[in-house]
Amino acid sequence: MDTVKNNTANHSAIKTAKMGWSKNDTVWALGLYGTAVGAGTLFLPINAGVGGLIPLVVMAILALPMTFFAHRGMTRFVLSSSNPGADITEVVEEHFGTGMGKVITLLYFFAIYPILLVYSVALTNTVESFMAHQLNVAPPSRAVLALALIVGLMAIVRLGEQLIIKAMSVLVFPFVAVLLMLALYLVPHWNGAIFDQVIPTEGGAYTIFMAVWLILPVMVFSFNHSPVISSFAVAKQKEYRENAEKQCSRILIRSHIMMVATVMFFVFSCVLSLSPANLAEAKAQNVSILTYLANYFETPVIAYVAPIVAIIAITKSFLGHYLGASEGFNGLVIKVARSQGKKIKPKALDTFTALFMLVTTWAVATINPSILGMIESLGGPIIAMLLFIMPIYAINKVPSMRQYSGALSNVFVMVIGLISISAIFYSLAQ
């Protein structure tokens, strides 16, 4: 009798958790929101507005469904394991075998590592511009400046992972608050330049098509928070058990509505206060929108606040991605060494990884390739493979995920993913 009562009580507790909303759910909703709104947001207005009004409107329409359906698919994939509490790499190995597990580990590394390179370039450009335009100081040579900045970041990494994570979590919401304040501050500067030429005179519909095509990888990159989805799904599975998927979807939709509303307001405010020609100039200068705004508007608030916020945001994102990239690189080196019957000492591995990261990020920051070009051809497409394609593939191959088949949202996610990946071929053709 007591056992029956206990089972009933447990069932009621789960049902209550499903129907209600806990403090922990709020924490996760804000955490997902904070993870997605980062330095990638600073490059979205440039690609969104440079093609004119139509690509901007298309982005506004697609932003919420593509972000929500893709991250929901990945959450469902993690929850599909027969072993509750398994992370995404374990789920991949369970469903697709150890060989595919290695492929996914490699893809994860290449999804994070190029972003680290993007931020090394972005930080160097932002500091260089800040010194030249706001501080009126001649910056040192690019190679010296890039080396100094990256060595400084590596020194921060040495302070410890937990300290970095705490610092990033503290910085997220002040960063979002400043973005919103800047967006509001720009409202009086709104103009109708983007409405002057809805169809470009050069290229016409083709130019619009190309702009929409290349905006998708940047959107995938800017709205991505897939690295935290595995931890999110596992945590909610422990709390809600068989009701985890429904509660995860509720948390995701609320988080994504906040995220899309915030980011789109910032994007529209930036685009409406400039012209497509200004945004093309920002793209050519290879700087974030905040750096361009700081140099464009001769007002002390924007001139000093915008680049400082950009430096903090890029630093935060660099450190976060460094942790993921170094972990992924360590995993790859260990697997290669193991396949050759060798074992690497942890200290030697950490030193080798740190040197690899230092040399490659410094070299790329010195060369100064196009930031948006790297996002379009590397970051966005590889993230799309993991976030958009893999979960949809699993729906058709994994028995525990067949319950999600037949939905139109699956087709939508697959199409967006394939278009985003196809940007790689555009860059190769160029």
UniProtKB/TrEMBL annotation:
<dbReference type="InterPro" id="IPR018227">
    <property type="entry name" value="Amino_acid_transport_2"/>
</dbReference>
<feature type="transmembrane region" description="Helical">
    <location>
        <begin position="348"/>
        <end position="365"/>
    </location>
</feature>
<feature type="transmembrane region" description="Helical">
    <location>
        <begin position="167"/>
        <end position="187"/>
    </location>
</feature>
<feature type="transmembrane region" description="Helical">
    <location>
        <begin position="143"/>
        <end position="160"/>
    </location>
</feature>
<dbReference type="GO" id="GO:0015293">
    <property type="term" value="F:symporter activity"/>
</dbReference>
<keyword id="KW-0997">Cell inner membrane</keyword>
<feature type="transmembrane region" description="Helical">
    <location>
        <begin position="27"/>
        <end position="46"/>
    </location>
</feature>
<keyword id="KW-0812">Transmembrane</keyword>
<feature type="transmembrane region" description="Helical">
    <location>
        <begin position="207"/>
        <end position="235"/>
    </location>
</feature>
<keyword id="KW-0029">Amino-acid transport</keyword>
<keyword id="KW-1133">Transmembrane helix</keyword>
<dbReference type="GO" id="GO:0005886">
    <property type="term" value="C:plasma membrane"/>
</dbReference>
<dbReference type="GO" id="GO:0015171">
    <property type="term" value="F:amino acid transmembrane transporter activity"/>
</dbReference>
<feature type="transmembrane region" description="Helical">
    <location>
        <begin position="371"/>
        <end position="395"/>
    </location>
</feature>
<protein>
    <submittedName>
        <fullName>HAAAP family serine/threonine permease</fullName>
    </submittedName>
</protein>
<feature type="transmembrane region" description="Helical">
    <location>
        <begin position="256"/>
        <end position="277"/>
    </location>
</feature>
<keyword id="KW-0813">Transport</keyword>
<keyword id="KW-1003">Cell membrane</keyword>
<feature type="transmembrane region" description="Helical">
    <location>
        <begin position="289"/>
        <end position="314"/>
    </location>
</feature>
<feature type="transmembrane region" description="Helical">
    <location>
        <begin position="52"/>
        <end position="70"/>
    </location>
</feature>
<feature type="transmembrane region" description="Helical">
    <location>
        <begin position="407"/>
        <end position="429"/>
    </location>
</feature>
<keyword id="KW-0472">Membrane</keyword>
<dbReference type="InterPro" id="IPR004694">
    <property type="entry name" value="Hydroxy_aa_transpt"/>
</dbReference>
<feature type="transmembrane region" description="Helical">
    <location>
        <begin position="103"/>
        <end position="123"/>
    </location>
</feature>
<keyword id="KW-0769">Symport</keyword>
